[in-house]
Each structure stands twice: as C-alpha cells, then as structure tokens.
Design brief:
- Keywords: Signal.
- The protein has helices spanning about 5-15, 35-55, 60, 65-95, 100-130, 140-170.
- It is elongated.
- The chain is mainly α.
- It has one domain (about 5-15, about 30-180).
- The chain starts with a helix and ends in a 20-residue tail after the last helix.
C-alpha cells in the first residue's frame, strides 16, 4: 500500500535511505479488537494533525522551500491516513453486518469510493514524493515528533489491517470484494 511512500518521505526528512520495502502485515500483530485499534488511531490522528499544523507555522520551516514541499507531501500522507481510517471503519462495519442489511450495502459503497480516493491519493503522494529533496533545515524536536507520530500511525494501520484481515476471512463478504478497485501494494521508489 502507500506506506512505502510515507517511509520514503520520512527518510528524505531524516536523510535516511529512501529505498524501503514495506513488511507484510503479520497476523500476530493484532491482539486487540478492531474497535479498540480504531479508537487508538483516532488519538494518533489528532496528534498528527496538530503536529503538522505547528510544523507549517514554524518560521524556520517556512523559510526553506524544500521543507515546505516535504511538509506538503506529509500533509497528503495525512489525508491518505484519514482515508484509510474511513476505509477501515467501513470494513469493520461490513464485517459486523448481516450480508443483506442496509448497513452492509452502505459499507460496501463506502469501501468502493474510499478505495478510489485512496488510489488517487496514492498517485499524488507518489508523484510528489518522488521529487522530494532533503531540506536545508536540520532535524529538530518538532520534526522528530512528526516522524514519530507518522511512524506510530503506520504501525497502528498495520495492526488494524491485520485484525480486519483475520476477521474478514471469516466473513461471508469476501466475494463482494472482487469488483472493488485494487489498492496499490508497493511504491515505485
């Protein structure tokens, strides 16, 4: 999925190697319920959005066009994370619905539109992320916080995805997913 791009954007900001491969989601990574994991993700979203807002307001960052471009890509990644949250909520709702219920049909509609938005966001992040250059500003506590909260969000998404995958495999809805747009699995980086 898009997580490679997130890691690449973070690596440009911290001068790490940008050629990262995303680990496959482990079934062992999800000891908590999907509802609990989604609640924890919501807390991370607030911290992430507040951190991004502060970074965009930082005069030192504003003075560096490369840093602003990196923050712009992180903002797109944040939008991507928000869309994944919508997607995970819809999947969770679908798993807990009766197959013929209105809630199940609404969840399937949400999943389809969410996947379409995720594909568009993925393309935007990939295009802009591929052009990123290392900023002239050195890494500081504010940037470390951004890197940490984006990393924790990535891990939380992996946990949610693992839990939903296990639950979904037991559900009668697997056949409904065949007509859904495919989400990207890896980055071109």
């Amino acid at each position: 999925m898009i997580f490679i791009v997130i890691l690449c954007a973070a690596s440009v900001l911290t001068d790490a190697d940008a050629k990262v491969r995303r680990a496959t989601v482990s079934r062992k990574a999800a000891p908590k319920s999907a509802d609990q994991l989604l609640s924890e993700l919501q807390v991370l979203e607030k911290i992430r959005r507040d951190s991004l807002k502060k970074a965009f307001g930082n005069p030192k960052y504003k003075a560096d066009p490369r840093m602003m471009e990196n923050l712009s890509v992180l903002s797109l990644v944040d939008s991507l994370f928000l869309e994944y949250h919508n997607y995970y909520n819809a999947m969770n709702k679908l798993i807990r619905s009766d197959e013929e219920s209105t809630a199940a049909h609404q969840a399937l509609t949400t999943i389809k539109s969410s996947r379409e938005r995720l594909i568009k966001l993925y393309k935007a992040v990939t295009e802009k992320g591929g052009k990123l250059q290392k900023p002239n500003v050195s890494t500081d506590n504010q940037m470390n916080l951004l890197e940490t909260v984006f990393g924790k969000t990535l891990k939380k998404n992996d946990e949610i995805e693992a839990e939903l995958r296990v639950e979904f495999e037991k559900s009668p809805f697997i056949n409904h997913m065949k007509n859904m747009p495919n989400l990207p699995n890896e980055s071109p980086f």
